[in-house]
Amino acid sequence: MGKREKGGFWIGAAAVVFYPLSWLGKRTYRGAEKLPAEGAALLVMNHVSHLDPPNDAVFVHRNKRIPRFMAKDSLFKVPVFGKMLAGSGGIPVYRGTTDAKHSLSAAHDALREGKVVLIYPEGTITKDPEGWPMRSRTGVARLALDNDVPVIPAARWGSNKIWDGYTKKFRPFPRKEVVTLLGDPVDLSAYRGQPVTNQLLREVTDLLMSHVRALLAEVRGEPEPADFYRPGTARAADENSG
């Protein structure tokens, strides 16, 4: 067994809060051995519930690593929780401001320091009525291409059945199973060294999220949709009117 990655006071504080929250569901982990025991890794995940960060943090921590979350900058302003998030290595994500570039800069630094960075490329809980991943932001592609580290897709399902962030329904009982499934690192060798264009970033982002979507389909035991949900499109309008 490998040694646990060293944390600190705020890591311990986060564990005190996150572990009980994760106990709301019956946790099942599959493919956990694919998370490196040491060294940098970029963990790319779907997002279906406000309970995802506690569940995902506990998953990584139980595997003796410390997750560095990329989270909305507004969360860092929440009393106590914000200090805990910052103190445990959280990376604030700024959108629509001059500080936006610093979000990726901090994530690059964490990866270069050999940390596990966990990112939800959708940027928020999916708005897909069926819970499939939405079309995602391309920051994940920049991180993946600029850092020669394992880029590991992962899917988690079941947390949304406990706490649905959009319907505001909280149903802890009876306890639901929350499954986390990790896939193999995605081979990006064909994309490295190419000029970084918007088209390339979109292609790599969709590739990574297609792996996440396939893992989610495996967990759910359902066929995956052919494309990514985009709020406001014809597909979304058709689903909302049905």
TrEMBL record:
Taxonomic lineage: Bacteria, Bacillati, Actinomycetota, Actinomycetes, Pseudonocardiales
Acyltransferase as UniProt keyword: yes
Gene Ontology CC terms, in alphabetical order: plasma membrane
This protein's name: 1-acyl-sn-glycerol-3-phosphate acyltransferase
Domain of life: Bacteria
Any one GO molecular function term: 1-acylglycerol-3-phosphate O-acyltransferase activity
Gene Ontology BP terms: phosphatidic acid biosynthetic process
Keywords carried by this UniProt record: Acyltransferase, Membrane, Transferase, Transmembrane, Transmembrane helix
Protein's UniProt keywords contain Transmembrane: yes
SUPFAM superfamilies per UniProt: Glycerol-3-phosphate (1)-acyltransferase
A Pfam family the protein falls into: Acyltransferase
InterPro entries registered for this protein in UniProt: Plipid/glycerol_acylTrfase
Residue span, Phospholipid/glycerol acyltransferase domain: 41-159
Organism: Actinokineospora auranticolor
Stretches that traverse the bilayer: 7-25
